[in-house]
Amino acid sequence: MSYSTDINSSNENPILPGVPNASLWKLLQVAATLAALIFLLGWGIHKGGLYGTVLVKERIIQTEAGIPVPQFDIVRPNAPAEDKVGAFISWQRTLGVWLAAAITLSVFSSLFRDNVFYKIAEALMVGVSAGYWFVVAFWSSLVPLVFAKLAPDLAKSTVLPGLQIPPNSIQLHGYTFPDLMVLIPLALGAMLLARLIPATGWLARWPLALIVGTMAGLRLVLIIESDFVEQVRSTIMPLVVMVPNTAGAGAPLEINWLLSLRNTSIVACVISSLSYFIFSIEHKGVFGKVSRVGIFVLMITFGASFAYTVMGRITLLTMRLEFLFKEWLQLDWLIS
Questions:
Q1: At what angle are helices 285-322 and 257-276 packed, to 10 degrees?
Q2: What contacts 90, CB < 8 A, 6 or more positions away?
Q3: Is the pLDDT of residue 22 over 80?
Q4: This prediction's pTM
Q5: Taking phi first (over 0 means left), then psi (-120 to 50 degrees means alpha), and beta for anything else, what does residue 209 get?
Q6: Is residue 37 packed enough to be buried (19+ CB in 10 Å), middle (13-18) or exposed (0-12)?
Q7: What is the Cα–Cα distance from 153 to 144, expressed in whole angstroms?
Q8: What are the tens digits of pLDDT across the range 139-154?
Q9: 55 C-beta neighbours (distance < 10 Å), count
Q10: pLDDT band at 228; cut points 50, 70, 90
């Protein structure tokens, strides 16, 4: 009884070698937060409370019609004193910088633990993205493709003043008749919303099947033409590349060893990679060695693709760090 109790108590908080315990980890988090706050306070005193501000300067430009129009140019924080003459703080852009910095720090706070700031930033991003794409879809799809076809005269007089009425439209005494063919996709789109009601959810299967089938057929043709056929065509290349001789006109052709080696290696890598996926032949002997080379080729390809993806994410990280240090904190030694 005591032996099992000791085992259970020892497994509740296991201490792994090289990993700090929970109390030490919390202490490090609090110390890092206090150090960051002290740095922000000290840097704010050094900058006179003006870090994170955006200075703009008005400049009058002339349009093609000769009308003077004011334009506001952003003045860099490390700009010379003479360039800052007449500059003033743009509170709208300053608010945008502080809001972007707060959201960025809220997302970075998830590196320590899940917290309310990260959840707010996550919900804000999802909500703003959904609202933005809803508005884009409304004005780029529903209004010009549905409303403008069902009520062209009303659409032209209200939301689409530049709407061009098709010349083949039926008109009578200045009234343009609607294009009733638009009701078919409109009805299919409305049937997708029937999925929200459990009793009529089966109606959404018909437009969904039409969308999936149509897109699958279109994508299949595009993928075969752009990927499969193009890759096969790119693999068909001469193993020995002959180029004109540099000795002059009439001289025999010479071999370009660099291009020949390149083409031979490409063909060899393609054949070895494809041989790995031939399972009807036992991977032994020469064929097994070729398929083993194909494994190395695939691993190198996957590794390069993964590294490319990671480098793209690191680029996004450096962009956000550059924004925090240059645009928000305005560290002069980094800006210069």
A1: 100
A2: 54, 55, 56, 72
A3: no
A4: 0.68
A5: alpha
A6: exposed
A7: 12
A8: 998 999 999 888 888 8
A9: 20
A10: confident
